[in-house]
Specification:
heterodimer, A: two-stranded antiparallel sheet, B: alpha/beta, Beta Polymerase, domain 2, 2 domains, five-stranded mixed sheet, two-stranded antiparallel sheet, 4 helices
C-alpha cells in the first residue's frame, strides 16, 4: 500500500500512483450503465433523473442500455406484476457480472399500495438479490441519485480478494437465479428461499377481534 | 326516448325475444334491459342498425358476480297441532342459484341517445357460463369481453380471439369472482390489520411461517 501522504506529494509532482483495486473499482463505479427499462410511474422519475435538470450523466450513468448484455445496473422502477416477474428475473440473469440492482419505490420493495393485489409481486427481492432499496411513491430523482452515489461508494470499498470479495469474483456464488414459472394459482415457487427469507415480525394477536373493539 | 319505448320497439321487431326491464331505484335511475342469450345477437344487431336507434358505440362492458345466496323467509302455515288447526310460523330457506352477469353500455353518437344498459345473465357459475359475444356487432367489446372471460370466467361464444387478457394462460382462477381466494403469501406482513391480519395469523398458525 502506498502511504496516503506520499501519494499526495507524488501527485503534486505529476506522478500518479494507485492500486489495481482502486483502479478497478473506480472504473466500475464511474461507468455504471443502467438497463433501459421501467415498469410503472417510478420509471417517469427515473427518466427525469437522466434528463438535464438532475443529470445522471454527472455520475457516468447516462448510457441507458437497451440490452441486458451491456448493462451493469438494473433499476427496478415500478410495480412488478406476477405476469412480469419472470421476465424481470430473466433480464437480470442475462446481465453480465458484475451487476447490481436498485429496487426503486414502494412497489418494487414490497408491492406498495398494491401489496394485497392478487396480481402483484410483493417485492422483487423475493427472486433476485437487491443491493439498494429506495422508499417513496415514487421516490424523487434526488433519492435515486442518492442511491446511485451510495452504490458507487460501496463499489469503491469492494476488496478484490479475501472472504468479503464481491459476488462476481467468487466462483461459488450464483450469478443466475431461477426464473419463476406461471402456475395455476400463483408463481411457482412463490419466492426463492436462497435469496429471500421472510423477516420475523411480531403480529399482535389482539387485533383478531372480529367485532373491531379492543 | 325512454327505455320502455326502446323495449317495446325491440320486442316488436325482433321476433321471439323476451326482454326484462330491470328498474334501478337509485336517483340516477339507470334502468337496464335483461336480454335472453338466445336473442342477444339479433337484438344487438337491431339496436345498431335500426334507423330510429342507431346505437353505434359500445362504451363499456363489465361483469358482475352473483354468488348463490340463501334466503330465509317466514311463512305462515296452517298445521294440526294437538288436533287443533293452528297458524304456525315456519322459516323456509331457499337457495337462489348464483349467476354471472355481463353489462353493456351503449350510446348512439348519431342520435345522441344513451347510455342504454344491456344485461345478460348466465345459467349458473360453474358449467353454464356461456354467453353470446357481441364483439361481432361492436368491435370495442373485444378486449373487455376478454377481460371478463379472464377475471369472471364467462365464455363468450363467437368471440374472435377469446384468450386471457391480464393473467397468464396457465392461470386457472377468476380473481374478480367473490369466492376467489388469493394465494397464501402472507409470510411477511409488517403492518397487518383487518383481513390481512387474519390471513397472516392463519398463515403462521398453519405452519406456513417457520
Amino acid at each position: 500500500m502506498v502511504d496516503e501522504k506520499l501519494k499526495n506529494e507524488l501527485s503534486k509532482q505529476g506522478i500518479f500512483t494507485t492500486t489495481l483495486e482502486q483502479l478497478y473499482n473506480w472504473g466500475r463505479s464511474s461507468s455504471l450503465w443502467p438497463l433501459n427499462f421501467g415498469l410503472a410511474c417510478c420509471a417517469i422519475e427515473m427518466i427525469a433523473t437522466t434528463m438535464a435538470r438532475y443529470d445522471m450523466a454527472r455520475f457516468g450513468a447516462e448510457v441507458f442500455r437497451p440490452s441486458p448484455r451491456q448493462a451493469d445496473l438494473m433499476i427496478v422502477a415500478g410495480t412488478v406484476t406476477k405476469k412480469m416477474a419472470p421476465q424481470v428475473v430473466r433480464l437480470y440473469n442475462q446481465m453480465p457480472e458484475p451487476k447490481y440492482v436498485i429496487s426503486m419505490g414502494a412497489c418494487a420493495i414490497s408491492g406498495g399500495p398494491f401489496k394485497q393485489g392478487y396480481n402483484v409481486l410483493k417485492g422483487i427481492d423475493r427472486y433476485i438479490p437487491v443491493d439498494l432499496y429506495i422508499p417513496g411513491c415514487p421516490p424523487r430523482p434526488e433519492a435515486l441519485l442518492d442511491a446511485f452515489m451510495e452504490l458507487q461508494k460501496r463499489i469503491d470499498r469492494q476488496q478484490l480478494t479475501g472472504a468479503n470479495r464481491p459476488r462476481h469474483l467468487n466462483a461459488d456464488e450464483p450469478s443466475e437465479f431461477p426464473v419463476p414459472r406461471f402456475g395455476a394459482h400463483d408463481l411457482e415457487p412463490a419466492n426463492n428461499p436462497n435469496v429471500w427469507k421472510a423477516p420475523l415480525v411480531q403480529i399482535s394477536q389482539t387485533g383478531t377481534d372480529e367485532s373491531g373493539s379492543h | 326516448m325512454n327505455l320502455e319505448a326502446i323495449e317495446s320497439e325491440i320486442e316488436a321487431n325482433v321476433p321471439g325475444c323476451r326482454l326484462v326491464l330491470i328498474a334501478n331505484p337509485s336517483p340516477s335511475g339507470q334502468h337496464s334491459l335483461l336480454l335472453d342469450a338466445g336473442h342477444a345477437m339479433a337484438v344487438a344487431i337491431y339496436l345498431r342498425d335500426a334507423a330510429s336507434l342507431r346505437f353505434d358505440f359500445c362504451s363499456n362492458v363489465t361483469g358482475i358476480d352473483w354468488p348463490a345466496k340463501e334466503l330465509s323467509e317466514k311463512v305462515k302455515v296452517k298445521k294440526l297441532v294437538d288436533g287443533v288447526e293452528q297458524e304456525v310460523e315456519e322459516v323456509r330457506k331457499t337457495t337462489t342459484p348464483g349467476s354471472l352477469e355481463v353489462v353493456y353500455h351503449l350510446f348512439s353518437i348519431e342520435k345522441k341517445l344513451g347510455p342504454l344498459v344491456l344485461r345478460m345473465s348466465t345459467g349458473d357459475r360453474d358449467a353454464n357460463v356461456h354467453l353470446p359475444s357481441l364483439t361481432p356487432v361492436w368491435r370495442s367489446a373485444e378486449l373487455q369481453e376478454r377481460e371478463i372471460f379472464d377475471l369472471f370466467g364467462v365464455v363468450f361464444d363467437g368471440h374472435p380471439d377469446l384468450r386471457r387478457l391480464l393473467m397468464w394462460d396457465e392461470f386457472q382462477d377468476h380473481p374478480m369472482r367473490r369466492d376467489y381466494v388469493d394465494p397464501d403469501d402472507y409470510e411477511y406482513e409488517p403492518t397487518a390489520h383487518d383481513e390481512v391480519l387474519r390471513r397472516a395469523n392463519q398463515h403462521l398458525s398453519e405452519g406456513g411461517g417457520r
